[in-house]
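Lab notebook, bench 4. The sequencing result for the construct came back, and we need a structural model before the next group meeting so we can plan mutations. Quick request posted to the team channel:

Model the 3D structure of this chain.
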Amino acid sequence: ERSYQQKYELVRNGLHQENEYAESRSRATKQELELCLEEEREVTQVLQEEWAKNQRLRETLDQTTKQLSEVQRNIHSCEEVTSELGREPSPTSEGEVLPTV
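Done. Here's the predicted structure in token form:
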């Protein structure tokens, strides 16, 4: 009976130690998971901020491109007017130079 009791105590102590180890690993894993979740939240926030920044930059670029196109159209119109003015006969007397635009 004493041998049985010793074996029982050894098994019980072994199981108790394994249980404590499993609980310790579980706490460590839970803590690691919480750290990963916090890091994920931070990365998600940074990504959202970068996305918003990129969106604003895209809108600014679109507006700048639109303004550039308008300027190019204006330049083209001015060149056409200047070209047309250069082809028209001058209402001034011969030899007089017109100011250029």
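The mean pLDDT is 90.
Will bring this to the meeting.
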